[in-house]
Amino acid sequence: MLNLVLFGPPGAGKGTQSQNLIEKFGLIHLSTGDLLRGEISQGTKLGIEAKKLMDEGSLVPDEVVIGMISNKLDANKDARGFIFDGFPRTVAQAEALDNLLESKGSAISGMIALEVTDSELEQRLLKRGETSGRADDANPEVIRKRIKEYNDKTAPVAGFYKKQDKFKSINGIGSIDEIFASINSVIEAY
Ligand code: B4P
Fold first, then answer.
1. Any atom of ligand 1 within 6 Å of the Cβ of 10
2. φ and ψ at 95, to 5 degrees?
3. Does ligand 1 come within 6 angstroms of the Cβ of 21?
4. Domain map of the chain by residue range?
5. CB-based burial label for 138 (10 Å; 0-12, 13-18, 19+)
6. I want to staple 94 with a disulfide (CB 3.0 to 4.6 A). Which of 88, 119, 176, 187 is the partner?
7. Which residues contact 125 (CB under 8 A, 6 or more apart)?
8. How much is the pLDDT for 190?
9. What distances in angstroms separate CA 52 from CA 55, 58, 88, 117, 150, one per listed residue?
């Protein structure tokens, strides 16, 4: 099984590159951001609670996203592998993911981190905010809060996979095709 964690700050291109990877490798795409936005659009209790946090640029509680991922793993027992996009975002989520996969006789193959400067992230997200309708993309202050949440809570997740010798970082600035080629060369080594 090929189980990839696509890692990087908000706007690094995780969602963008995931689309290409699903097509090429036939993997199931699990984006916690998309799953949460799905709950919001359906108006569920979980979605109403998550929306407040997402709109202000905060992370949603660990137990909420871990529960969503667990359900998705159970619903896709015959998958060839998964791309985890935007998850794990805390060390507690990374530990939970290892335990969930181990209980299914599986494991993470590797983490690929997209490195992008803060000024480029801000520009990309504000540009997407012009058309996405996403409240968390529209406001520079919220974008900066998301980047701070990433630096405080998410960046340490890289250390978790470095300890397991599963971490690779690549340059996330350049054309989408160039970045996809770099990701592919990492995957070929697995
Ligand atoms: P996410 O939905 O995961 O969103 P993201 O970090 O904004 O996006 P991503 O990196 O995928 O960027 P994309 O490819 O779209 O999270 C949103 C919120 O949900 C979080 O703030 C949090 O509140 C909550 N959440 C989600 N998961 C959670 C978890 N596990 N725990 C707790 N809370 C959680 O790219 C962005 C833009 O850049 C696009 O417009 C794209 O076209 C552009 N772009 C991409 N590649 C480019 C390139 N090479 N050059 C130029 N532009 C590029």
1. yes
2. -65, -40
3. no
4. 2-117+154-185
5. middle
6. 88
7. 10, 11, 137, 143, 146
8. 83
9. 5, 9, 20, 27, 18
CATH number for domain 2-117+154-185, candidates 3.40.30.10, 3.40.50.300, 1.10.10.10, 3.30.450.20: 3.40.50.300
The annotation status of 131 as a binding-site residue, yes or no, is no
pLDDT tens string 128-150: 999 999 999 999 999 999 999 99
Residue 129 Cβ < 6 Å to ligand 1: no
Encoded tokens for 52: 């407040």
CA 112, CA 183: separation in Å to the nearest integer?
7
146 in catalytic set? yes
Question: For 52-106, what is each residue's pLDDT tens digit?
Answer: 999 999 999 999 999 999 999 999 999 999 999 999 999 999 999 999 999 999 9
Q: Which helix (H) or strand (E) holds 39?
A: helix 32-42
Report the C-alpha gap between 150 and 71 in whole angstroms. 25
- Contact predicate 95/161, CB 8 Å: no
